[in-house]
Design brief:
Length: about 120
């Protein structure tokens, strides 16, 4: 399944322009083809609240992935992770407190104190 939408509000996964720009720069620095490769966003067991986010670059999506494209960035999400992160927005924040990718997830009912894990 593939979805393309540059609007920040829709079901599935959305990506801000800042996050897409940063991820594309990182993909290009790894000499990955941004027309095929993308950012994998997934959920894994772990952290003090039970679940945590994971991200990595993949050369291509898996057969059962949902593929979203926002601002030129392809995002791959496996079916099991989608159950936890449907409706989320991936953003990139910079500044004095540190920089990095952040997932705004409407399904979260609680997060740990450090913000690294969550519970739905």
């Amino acid at each position: 399944m593939s979805t393309t939408d540059d609007s920040p509000q829709h079901s599935g996964i959305s990506v801000t322009e800042a996050a897409a720009s940063e991820a594309i720069s990182l993909l290009e620095s790894e000499d990955m083809d941004t027309d095929i490769a993308g950012l994998r966003l997934y959920v894994q067991q772990g952290g003090c609240a039970g679940l945590s986010y994971g991200m990595r670059f993949d050369h291509e999506p898996e057969e059962d992935d949902t593929v979203y494209e926002h601002h030129g960035l392809r995002v791959f999400v496996d079916p099991a992770s989608m159950n936890y992160i449907e409706g989320s927005v991936l953003d990139y924040e910079g500044g004095l407190q540190g920089e990095g990718f952040h997932v705004e997830n409407p399904n979260v009912v609680s997060e740990c104190g450090c913000g690294e894990s969550f519970r739905t």
